[in-house]
Specification:
This protein is mostly helical. Helices cover 72% and strands 0% of the residues. The chain is built from 2 helices and no strands. The N and C termini lie far apart (67 Å).
């Protein structure tokens, strides 16, 4: 019976250690994700500043497709059931 209690207590200790490691890893992932998006934002700002300093015009954003072109690409499912 004591052997079973030792196994239970050891497994609880291992579970607690795994849980604490998972929490630390989640915190690190959150921090890295925040740093990544901050770096992307700063990179975009620097790119715009460099384009302004060199006199280049920034590229135009891509245009969204119109609703007419979206309607033309519709394929009904009944035609695919052959």
């Amino acid at each position: 019976m004591i052997f079973l209690w030792l196994i239970v207590s050891a497994s609880l200790c291992v579970a607690f250690l795994a849980w604490s490691q998972a929490r630390r890893t989640a915190a690190q992932l959150s921090q890295l994700s925040e740093m990544y998006w901050e770096l992307r934002y700063q990179h975009g700002e620097l790119r715009v500043q460099m384009q302004r300093a060199s006199g280049e015009t920034p590229p135009a954003p891509p245009e969204a497709p119109t609703s007419a072109s979206v309607g033309e690409s519709f394929v009904p499912l009944s035609s695919l059931k052959r």
